């Protein structure tokens, strides 16, 4: 069992070995679920979509225009943000 210290701001830092165990990297998100008895469950937050959800995503949105890589990335980012 690991013991963590709570800062004056109410924050805790998960040590590297715990983050590795969760499989999270800098910038990733974790989810916390409150359980009975003052316990919590910490898990890596993973997108729940499937790659097949993206099939046909751009159909009809380009008006037969070519998109730049930046425009494609923006559309993709907007689509994944809407799924969360």
Describe this structure in words.
- The chain is α+β, with helices and mostly antiparallel strands and 84 residues long.
- The protein is 26% helix and 14% strand.
- The chain has two helices and two strands; from the N terminus they run αββα.
- The protein has a two-stranded antiparallel sheet.
- The chain is elongated.
- The protein starts with 15 loop residues before the first helix and ends with a helix.
What's the β-strand tally?
2
Give me the secondary-structure category. alpha+beta
CA radius of gyration:
19 Å
The N- and C-terminal alpha carbons lie at a distance of 32 Å
Mean pLDDT: 83
The spatial strand order of the largest sheet comes to: 1-2
Q: Which percent range describes the beta-strand content?
A: 5-15%
Question: Describe the biggest sheet?
Answer: 2 strands, antiparallel
Number of helices: 2
State the share of residues found in helices, binned by percent: 25-40%
Overall outline: elongated
The string of secondary-structure elements, in order, is HEEH
GO molecular function, one term: DNA binding
Protein name: AbrB/MazE/SpoVT family DNA-binding domain-containing protein
Keywords: DNA-binding
Organism: Bradyrhizobium agreste
């Amino acid at each position: 069992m690991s013991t963590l210290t709570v800062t004056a701001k109410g924050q805790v830092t998960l040590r590297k070995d715990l983050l590795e165990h969760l499989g999270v990297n800098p910038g990733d998100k974790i989810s916390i679920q409150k359980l009975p008895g003052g316990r919590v469950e910490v898990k890596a937050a993973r997108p729940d979509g499937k790659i097949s959800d993206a099939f046909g995503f751009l159909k009809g949105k380009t008006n037969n225009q070519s998109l730049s890589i930046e425009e494609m990335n923006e559309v993709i980012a907007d689509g994944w943000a809407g799924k969360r």
